[in-house]
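User: structure tokens for this one?
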Amino acid sequence: MSKIELMSEDLANKIAAGEVVEKTMNVVKELVENAIDAQSSFIKIELIDSGVKEICVTDDGIGMDKDDAVMAFSRHATSKLKTLEDLFNIESLGFRGEALPSIASVSRVNLKTSDGNTGTEVIINGGNIESVSNSDLKQGTKVTVRDLFYNTPVRLKYLKNLYIELANVVEYVNKMALSFPNIKFVLLNNGKELLNTDGKGNLLKVINAIYGLDVTKKMIAIENDNKDYKISGYISYPEAARTNRNVITTLVNGRIIRNNDLMRTILDSYHTYIPESKYPIVVMNIEADPYLIDINIHPTKMDIKFSNFDNLKSLINETISKKLESLTLIPTLEAKDKNQLEEKEVKESINFKDVIDSYIENNKNKSNIDNDYQKVEEVTIDFEVNEEKESYSNQEEEDTNSERVKKMYPVGLVHGTYIIAENEDGMFIIDQHAANERINYEKYLKAMGTHDNKVIDLLIPIKIELSNSDYIILKENMHLLEELNFTVEEFGINTILIRSHPYWLPTFNIEEAIRRIIEVIVSKESFDSYKFTEKVAITLACKMSIKANDHISLETMEYLLDTLRKTENPFTCPHGRPTIITYSNYELEKLFKRAMN
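Assistant:
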């Protein structure tokens, strides 16, 4: 007797649902993408209890006739692919024909749709069509998904708690609104409006609706192209960077994608402008011929493969780097009234505790949702809803002078760490260590990049002893020291002698500097000549610079500030921390109530 049998369509759909539908966000994603493919100009997403209880997506798209409405719930039924050739020229968001049958197999679905001529209603329970009838809907489609995973309790158990499910949906809808500013998006949860865009095509207005006016004022428009790719969108000033990588939104031909190489390229473009633990706010749309990309590599269609990725990488690096290099990036402190701040927080934060409390109250006798709900305290998502503004300031101050910072005159030192300076524009606070770090970093990086053979011979060689493991690694990579123009000899067990060193090495603490370079060599995981050189420059700059609590004279302060002004990036240290912040004259007057507006 044969042991191999063809599985039922219901079982196949439930298995497919495990790949396509893992959380409420996946359901919202598939329904919203269908609405966009249907040429909608308005999409409304209504959730009950973060979508666990109900998800309703309404659009004003082209809709379907009766036959298509029924066929849409058949596996692999799609209007977007006809031939194998179409698979390599995909322009729609959906194309597999798996989403609707997968969703319907693990929930209760009600579909109302109309193509403008006839309206149809289809009711499906657990993948089985229960009824097909006429509908009074005039145009578009309305899909209601209730009781997600009601017939697969194991998957229901592994849903995250409500505020995480809601946060995932909010994040996704935000990104879709950024992808399609010409579509009006409305998102509600338990009747509370979380997002409402105007759909007029102004991307900056959508950014304002999601992140708030403070962030909007710190966004910079970008646009550039080469023979393969075109990029456009907005990037943030370094000071607006966040700790969550989700603030980077990357789109390819309007499709939200997540690609590690692309993310790394954007972060590399901000290198030394922001700390490694921070992420800039970016909305970047990449336009490319569909033949240059492959989106058919994962069921969620979120990952993507690029042809000629090096061309895209250089385009992004060049565009972002040149834009940042053209701007004055000194963070300006603003004097804000405490009452105004408190009122803003109350008005603009989204309190998920109300959502969770209402769910718990309505489900006291149900145990199929994780008990973590009862432990959740007040949680807010970091975006703000603001009234529409007709104009925004991008603060793009392209300095026509060769130096990007005006001359500053030091007046004193606070806590032996922060230089206070002034000029006609206001007051400046400079971190003396960060400023000296930037100066030294660029000096060492330039010196190591010139391949100058100038060396200083030591009258008394420096002896450096290492551990067994470090000595083995150093011996294998001794050529790195030689390439930096060190003269090195092995001397006994686990010991080396330094007989000469490059001229640019700081003379006041040579042995310490050499030890720092050796630390970089023995700790490296993989070798890249530029990254190695840069790491050495960063390490030396950090260890050889003025420290906090080093009290320096006014003359030293003035020299430090003048030298900082002449660096390529005077605004951050090599680790991405700010070197300068400022209070404008107006902000000072506001603080002391000299200016009341």
